[in-house]
Structure to design on (128 residues):
């Protein structure tokens, strides 16, 4: 029973974290989720578990789609972000079709670069 209670408390905390997070923090959470899902997919490919790899690559793809959907195209930088997201998305699809570790690692590298850049922007603007 304690395990169920702990799981319930963790889920409640995660739900509260999302509901109270700033837009900048939500974006960071999306990047972190994409990194997590790519890492799970990489491990799954290494273990020959194509089903789990597929599921997690699709989760990462959905995050990239969401990040693209939130871009405000009236800002020139949004067009640059869109190009990067398009590239990442295409690499994720390719990685999923072929279950190629190197392609997925490339997508993951790009996601990490975007996440790290976003962290720097948050820090420079004193946003949490």
């Amino acid at each position: 029973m304690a395990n169920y209670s702990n799981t319930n408390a963790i889920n409640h905390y995660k739900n509260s974290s999302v509901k109270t997070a700033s837009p900048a923090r939500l974006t960071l959470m999306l990047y972190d989720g994409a990194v997590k899902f790519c890492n799970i997919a990489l491990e799954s490919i290494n273990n020959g578990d194509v089903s789990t790899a597929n599921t997690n690559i699709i989760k990462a793809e959905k995050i990239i789609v969401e990040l693209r959907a939130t871009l405000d195209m009236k800002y020139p930088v949004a067009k640059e972000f869109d190009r990067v997201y398009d590239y990442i998305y295409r690499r994720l699809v390719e990685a999923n079709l072929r279950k190629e570790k190197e392609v997925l690692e490339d997508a993951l590298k790009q996601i990490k670069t975007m996440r790290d850049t976003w962290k720097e922007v948050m820090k420079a603007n004193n946003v949490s």
User: Anything to note?
Assistant: The mean pLDDT is 89. The helical segments are 2-20, 23-46, 50-69, 76-98, 101-124.
